Structure formats: structure tokens, C-alpha cells
């Protein structure tokens, strides 16, 4: 039986965020300012950073575009196998990123996959591969986020719009989307942050070719593999800053809902 | 006119029993009932937001139950979240015009002026009072060209001192725009103040309709009387025409011929409103000499209200009590204190039979 005054010990749990702070702070024991300037101005890292930002932005845009209507359907409509679809969307959460990447490779070796590569665009060991791997890793999460945002919009507004003559499309564009817009932006940023840190699926599908398919997380992996600790620390610090900044923007955008 | 034919609706936890009713056009129809009686469900069925389990809805003899809400010519104003929060007042009002791609806002401005909300047009909707929100929502429905408005508890968020003002305004707007308004409420006084027709929907059952042009409302059903707050309901027996024997009051009471004419002999429920129980004032004792149905008892409790006292009048030698409303303005004419013996009169014409 739990003691009745257990609540007063809960503040002890506030030390959990401190663990992350300690981990981030420990980076500075290996931080070298000169090495930092050297690395972040190197062609290889600038390329990796640029590639990471471009691919993450494309992935966040595509995932958001796919996620909004899918989430709307899942949130508002009733149809057969809805629960099955809802569960399938969470596949990236339960399958490891490397396994997800391997599944993409297996698919690309089927006749359908070969047809896509031969007639549309190459995927394996290419920038397209980075984008495809990251979309598959993030779109499910994007849908889950968007669905929870749309679920929060009271259907009452849509009901009123219906009785005022709005069509389903007008309700979607003039009521549901504007009422969820802050949440959509916030979800976009979260998906972007998730993409920029994606490693497992990306390395499995696109490989790690410096100046070609090397993104920031892959660069960290390669620097660490070559035992360049100072270089690794610089890249980790860079990715932590980018990640925390995007999470701060996410928090700022989602802190107040429009219909409060 | 809107006609409901055997409309019912059922969920796992609630059943709206079959309703058949005709709502006349260009009238205000109130639907009264306690919370959880299915009043909002009925509005949503009419608006097309819910599909009835059985029955059909007709508008001008054309079935509309299969039409989507967009095509029903019915606007729905729910109790909460009436205005779109991402739009300003003017954007809310012109929303129906935007849907049609109509850029001519003259109609919206004219209607806003008529509804006395032109000064609110540039305001953000977050800073509006309950009455202002309702007026804006009404303006938006009129701009949409809707002739039938469904209002769910329109006065719920309006301060009680402004409630009547809003209701009279609603009546004026209804007349001016020839609207048919159905509003659900549990505000009995509000419903009687403006509605042409008052309907009672209690715990999913449609009980009775009262056409609000006669002077006095007498409930016919026990459930309606209870909802109206009539506490003095008793069981009795017809011992002869126009005479009820009431064991709990330990007396016989005369009732008017009109009340007893269609009722078979036997057990009967009868009631009297607390405001109709007359206390015999000492100075007027002679006037009550020949009036039947006098009861002697004592005051057990006194509760003061704004304009009247609510007295718990206990009959001598019984555990039965009547609630009696006594105007505060008359308190100088009688000594009102707990334990005081008084005499009350139940005038036959004020006693009514319930079924």
C-alpha cells in the first residue's frame, strides 16, 4: 500500500530532465572551439547540414500534406477497417527504424519496387532514398499528431457551418483547417525535427556517402566510427541545438489553442 | 410548417420516444423540459445532424429527413460554441456569403443595423457578452437566408437581468423576418413570455402542447406539473361528482364541474399551485364564510424569497403539507411565524386534475 503522503515526494522526479541537461553539459568537456569552427565550415559538414535541412523540410511538407486529409478522415468519418488503418499508422512507432529501412529495401527488390526504380526514380543509395525512408518513418507519426489536433476541434463548429450551407470541402477548408492551423504548424515542426534526427531507416536505404547521402546523424555516426571524439561532439551539439530550437518553436505554437 | 411523424431516436443510454407534432410557420415554439430530456437531440434531428431511428420529418409536406443539413433551410444555434472563434464578428456574420462567393456585404450590414450590432462588427469574438453572441449568431442565420432557426438554450449564458430584453428582441426579430423559431429551454418563464406554443418534452417523452393565447396554463400531466414546480399534488377519490375525498389531507374537497366532467370515478391525482392557495386574513374572514375547501393547520417553516414567502403549511393531525406562496407586500396583515395557526382556502376553480 502506498503511503498517503507520497505526493510530497513527487518533486524528486524533477531530476529526470536534469539527466538530459547533464548529458548535454558533458559535451562541453570535449568541446574545442577551433575544431568547432573548422568542422562547421568544412564542405562535407555544410553539405550534410544542407542535405539534412532540405530533406527534412521536404519530408515535413510531404508528410503534412498526406497527414492532414488522412487525419481528418480518421477523426471525422466512419468507414470499414478504420481501426485496422489506425493501428497500421503506428507501424513506425513499433518497428525499429533500421527494420523499417530494411523493409523498404525488401519492397524495392520486388517487381513493384523494381518497376518504380526503373520507371520513376532511383531510391537506393540516393537522396530520393533519404526522403522516402524519412517519409515512411514520419508520416504515421504526422497522421497521429494531426488526428489528435483535429480531434480537439469541437465538431459543433462544423455542425453550425453545415446548417449555414457549407459543403464538406468548405467545412474542411474554412472551419477545420483554420481552427487546427497552429497545431498543424506545431506538428510540422515536430515532424521536421524527427526527420532531421532520423538515422536507422536513412542509413539502410540511402547508405552513407559523404557529399552525397550523408546527413547530420550519419555524419555523427561516421565521425564516431573513426574515433574523432571532438568532431563527434561538435556535430552532436549542432544537432541538439537544432532539435531543441525546433521543439521550442513547437511548444510556443501549441501552447494556446485558438478556441480556448 | 414542419411536421414530425413518429420521430424517435435511440442510443445505448437514452431513448427519445415517438413524437408526432406539427410546428406552424412564423411562430415561436418553445420546447420545455429538464436537462437530459432529449431537447437538444430533437433539434439535432430537425437540423439533420442526427438521423432518426424511426419516423420522418416534413417541411411544407416535402420529406426532408433524408436531406443533408445544408439543404434543409434550417439554422442551428447550439448552446455553446455558437460563433466561429477564428473569425471576427463581421467575418462570422458574412460567413454564409463567403460560402457562396458573394462579395456584396450590403445585406449583412443592413441586418447588423437592424439587430443593433453594427458597433460590434470590428470586434474580436472573445470579448462579447452572451446576449451579443446570440444576436450575432441570429444575424448570421438571417444572412444565410434561413427561415427556420433552432435555438438551444439561447438565454443560458445571458445574465438574468438582460434575459427578458433578449427574449423580447427575439420576438421582434421573429416578426420582422417572418421566422419560425424553435427554442429549447428549461426556463419556464422565458418560454411563456414569448412563445406562441409551449411543448413539454420530459425524459424523452413528448407530453403536451400549450397554445399560449389562453390566459392560464393548467398542466394536464403529472410529469408536466412536477416539472413546473407544482409541489401540491395529492391522491384522492371521487366520492361523488365534483367531490374528491383526500385521505392524506383528511378532508373532502369540491372541484369545478369542468374538471370532473370527463373523469371516471375512482382514484385521481389533483394539484393546486402554491400561489393559488389563499391564506384567510383575519380582516377578510367574513368574505371566506361561504367558500368551501377551508383547511386549518400551522406554519412549520418559512422561506423568504425575493417577492414572496414560501410557507410550509402542515394540516392539523396529519403529516401532509402544502406549499403556500404569500406575497411579501401583505405581511403586515397577518402574523407569519413558525408554529402560528392559520386557515387556508383551496378555491375549487384552482384545483386541477392530472393524468
The helical percent of chain B reads 10-25%
Helical residue percent of chain A?
over 70%
N-to-C terminal Cα separation of chain B, in Å?
A: 30 Å
Mean pLDDT across residues of chain B: 89
Order of helices and strands of chain B: EEEHEEEHHHHEHEHEEHEEEHEEEEEEE
Structural class of chain A: mainly alpha
What is the string of helix and strand elements of chain A? Answer: HHHHHHHHHHHHH
What this model shows, in words?
Chain A is an all-alpha fold. Helix content of chain A is 74%, strand content 0%. Chain A is built from 13 helices and no strands. Chain A has helices at 15-26, 33-40, 43-76, 82-88, 91-94, 97-108, 111-119, 127-152, 155-163, 168-196, 200-206, 216-225, 229-254. The two termini of chain A are 40 Å apart. Chain B is α+β, with helices and mostly antiparallel strands and 355 residues long. Helix content of chain B is 22%, strand content 33%. Chain B is built from nine helices and 20 strands. A six-stranded mixed sheet of chain B has the order 6-7-8-3-9-10, with helices on both faces. A five-stranded antiparallel sheet of chain B has the order 13-12-11-14-20. Chain B has a five-stranded antiparallel sheet with strand order 15-19-16-17-18, with no helix packed on it. In chain B, a hairpin with a 2-residue loop joins strand 11 (233-240) and strand 12 (243-246). The longest helix of chain B is centred in the middle third of the chain and has 18 residues, at 160-177. Chain B is elongated, with a radius of gyration of 25 Å. The mean pLDDT of chain B is 89. At the A-B interface, helix 9 and helix 10 of A face strand 6 and helix 3 of B.
Amino acid at each position: 500500500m502506498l503511503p498517503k503522503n507520497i505526493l510530497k515526494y513527487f518533486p524528486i522526479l524533477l531530476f529526470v530532465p536534469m539527466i538530459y541537461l547533464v548529458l548535454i553539459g558533458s559535451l562541453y568537456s570535449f568541446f574545442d572551439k577551433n575544431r568547432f569552427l573548422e568542422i562547421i565550415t568544412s564542405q562535407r559538414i555544410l553539405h550534410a547540414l544542407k542535405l539534412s535541412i532540405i530533406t527534412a523540410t521536404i519530408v515535413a511538407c510531404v508528410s503534412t500534406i498526406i497527414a492532414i486529409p488522412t487525419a481528418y478522415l480518421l477523426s471525422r468519418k466512419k468507414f470499414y477497417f478504420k481501426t485496422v488503418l489506425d493501428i497500421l499508422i503506428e507501424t513506425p512507432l513499433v518497428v525499429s527504424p533500421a527494420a523499417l529501412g530494411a523493409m523498404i529495401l525488401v519492397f524495392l527488390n520486388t517487381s513493384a519496387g523494381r518497376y518504380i526504380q526503373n520507371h520513376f526514380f532511383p531510391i537506393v543509395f540516393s537522396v530520393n532514398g533519404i526522403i522516402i525512408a524519412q517519409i515512411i518513418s514520419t508520416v504515421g507519426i504526422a497522421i497521429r499528431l494531426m488526428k489528435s489536433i483535429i480531434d480537439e476541434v469541437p465538431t459543433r463548429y462544423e455542425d453550425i457551418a453545415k446548417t449555414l450551407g457549407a459543403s464538406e470541402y468548405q467545412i474542411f477548408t474554412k472551419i477545420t483547417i483554420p481552427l487546427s492551423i497552429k497545431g498543424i504548424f506545431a506538428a510540422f515542426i515536430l515532424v521536421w525535427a524527427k526527420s532531421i534526427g532520423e538515422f536507422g531507416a536513412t542509413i539502410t536505404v540511402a547508405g552513407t556517402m559523404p557529399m552525397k547521402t550523408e546527413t547530420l546523424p550519419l555524419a555523427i555516426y561516421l565521425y564516431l566510427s573513426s574515433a574523432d571524439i571532438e568532431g563527434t561532439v561538435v556535430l552532436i551539439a549542432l544537432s541538439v541545438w537544432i532539435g531543441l530550437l525546433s521543439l521550442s518553436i513547437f511548444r510556443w505554437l501549441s501552447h494556446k489553442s485558438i478556441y480556448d | 410548417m414542419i411536421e414530425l411523424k413518429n420521430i424517435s431516436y435511440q442510443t445505448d443510454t437514452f431513448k427519445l420516444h415517438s413524437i408526432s407534432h406539427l410546428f406552424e410557420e412564423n411562430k415561436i415554439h418553445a420546447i420545455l423540459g429538464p436537462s437530459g430530456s432529449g431537447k437538444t437531440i430533437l433539434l439535432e434531428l430537425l437540423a439533420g445532424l442526427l438521423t432518426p431511428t424511426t419516423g420522418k420529418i416534413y417541411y411544407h409536406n416535402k420529406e426532408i429527413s433524408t436531406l443533408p443539413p445544408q439543404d434543409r433551410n434550417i439554422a442551428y444555434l447550439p448552446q455553446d460554441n455558437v460563433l466561429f472563434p477564428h473569425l471576427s464578428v463581421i467575418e462570422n456574420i458574412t460567413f454564409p456569403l463567403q460560402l457562396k462567393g458573394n462579395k456584396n456585404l450590403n445585406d449583412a450590414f443592413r441586418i447588423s443595423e437592424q439587430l443593433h450590432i453594427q458597433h460590434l462588427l470590428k470586434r474580436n469574438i472573445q470579448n462579447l457578452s452572451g446576449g451579443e453572441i446570440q444576436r450575432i449568431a441570429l444575424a448570421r442565420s438571417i444572412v444565410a437566408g434561413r427561415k427556420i432557426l433552432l435555438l438551444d438554450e439561447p438565454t443560458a449564458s445571458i445574465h438574468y437581468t438582460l434575459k427578458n430584453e433578449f427574449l423580447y428582441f427575439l420576438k421582434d426579430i421573429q416578426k420582422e423576418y417572418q421566422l419560425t423559431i424553435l427554442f429549447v429551454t428549461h426556463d419556464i418563464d422565458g418560454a411563456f413570455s414569448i412563445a406562441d406554443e409551449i411543448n413539454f418534452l420530459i425524459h424523452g417523452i413528448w407530453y403536451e402542447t400549450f397554445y399560449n393565447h389562453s390566459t392560464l396554463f393548467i398542466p394536464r400531466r403529472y410529469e408536466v406539473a412536477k416539472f413546473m414546480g407544482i409541489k401540491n399534488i395529492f391522491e384522492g377519490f371521487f366520492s361523488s361528482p365534483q367531490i374528491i375525498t383526500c385521505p392524506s389531507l383528511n378532508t373532502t374537497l369540491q372541484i369545478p364541474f369542468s374538471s370532473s366532467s370527463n373523469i371516471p370515478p375512482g382514484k385521481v391525482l389533483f394539484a393546486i399551485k402554491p400561489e393559488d392557495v389563499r391564506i384567510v386574513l383575519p380582516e377578510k374572514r367574513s368574505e371566506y364564510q361561504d367558500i368551501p375547501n377551508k383547511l386549518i393547520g400551522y406554519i412549520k417553516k418559512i422561506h423568504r424569497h425575493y417577492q414572496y414567502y414560501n410557507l410550509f403549511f402542515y394540516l392539523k393531525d396529519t403529516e401532509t403539507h402544502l406549499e403556500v406562496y404569500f406575497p411579501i407586500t401583505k405581511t403586515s396583515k397577518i402574523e407569519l411565524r413558525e408554529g402560528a395557526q392559520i386557515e387556508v382556502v383551496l378555491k375549487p376553480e384552482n384545483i386541477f386534475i392530472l393524468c
